[in-house]
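Bumping my old thread because nobody answered last time. Still need a sequence for this structure:
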């Protein structure tokens, strides 16, 4: 992002996962060092680009920006652009000790923030049966949630579940034989998603973050959000419509005007939705091209939506 926008004066990176932020910090430092060399030493960068990183969720962006410059958070100035990437990184998925992987055995953790107290193990072994079923149904959109709910609670009588491997075996026993390997993997993916969302309170946090970020935008500033599953995308879509209209809204709201976009400089924007407080530049989300999917298969479910403040 810094390389693509040499005019950038301020960059603030935020992530609730300190491990992910540490990796990002190293990349930023390497880029700044490289740029300083190209431009004739570190003195050449003074006053051009300020870069900060914070271990915080985006819902706290007002506090973070206020610490950098009060005018960025109090509405008198604001920022030109905010990008939120909601996807898990490969680092998080590949580390078995984080508990996110269906294929690698590890602890039933699933916390994005290691300082948080709630884990997936807590939910599986102590939450009421109806609550376990609710998150499987609502957060995992799992059709077989009732059978899984009963088996999970029954497992408590023999000591409970304490590793991702034990949970996967329970899922395999619950899935029908006709489903085969792909059947249980898809179910496990949905179950793991449900638990991760519950552990990190992801959906409510996302909605709060979208409102906070929009408040921090300067006039004509843009908020771009990359989501990776339908629950996230639904929240982004609906919240964007509410933000530009000032209240609950949908695509058929009479106060919202839809129009085609014909801009050679930004051909990826096709249709916009205009409201009182701003414009949704992506009536339909932008999805990865075939070339992008070849480079990174994990991006195939990504959806990008962009909103611009009035």
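Sorry it took so long. Here it is:
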């Amino acid at each position: 992002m810094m390389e693509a926008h040499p005019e950038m004066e301020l960059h603030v990176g935020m992530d609730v996962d300190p491990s992910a932020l540490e990796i990002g910090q190293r990349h930023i430092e390497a880029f700044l060092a490289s740029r300083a060399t190209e431009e004739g030493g570190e003195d050449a960068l003074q006053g051009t680009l300020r870069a900060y990183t914070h271990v915080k969720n985006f819902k706290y962006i007002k506090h973070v920006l206020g610490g950098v410059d009060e005018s960025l958070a109090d509405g008198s100035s604001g920022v030109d652009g905010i990008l939120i990437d909601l996807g898990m990184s490969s680092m998080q998925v590949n580390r078995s000790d984080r508990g996110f992987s269906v294929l690698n055995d590890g602890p039933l953790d699933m916390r994005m923030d290691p300082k948080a107290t709630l884990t997936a193990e807590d939910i599986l072994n102590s939450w009421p049966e109806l609550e376990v079923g609710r998150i499987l149904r609502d957060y995992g959109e799992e059709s077989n949630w009732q059978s899984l709910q009963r088996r999970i609670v029954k497992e408590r009588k023999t000591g409970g579940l304490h590793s991702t491997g034990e949970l996967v075996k329970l899922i395999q026993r619950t899935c029908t034989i006709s489903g085969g390997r792909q059947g249980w993997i898809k179910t496990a993916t949905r179950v793991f998603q449900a638990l991760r969302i519950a552990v990190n309170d992801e959906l409510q946090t996302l909605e709060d973050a979208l409102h906070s970020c929009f408040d921090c935008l300067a006039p004509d500033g843009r908020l771009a959000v990359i989501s990776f599953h339908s629950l996230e995308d639904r929240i982004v879509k609906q919240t964007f419509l509410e933000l530009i209209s000032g209240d609950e809204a949908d695509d058929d709201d009479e106060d919202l005007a839809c129009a085609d976009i014909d801009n050679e400089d930004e051909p990826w924007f096709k249709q916009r939705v205009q409201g009182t407080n701003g414009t949704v530049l992506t009536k339909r989300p932008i999805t990865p091209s075939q070339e992008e999917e070849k480079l990174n298969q994990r991006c195939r479910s990504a959806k990008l939506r962009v909103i611009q403040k009035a």
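DSSP finds twelve helices and eight strands in the chain. Let me know if any region looks off to you.
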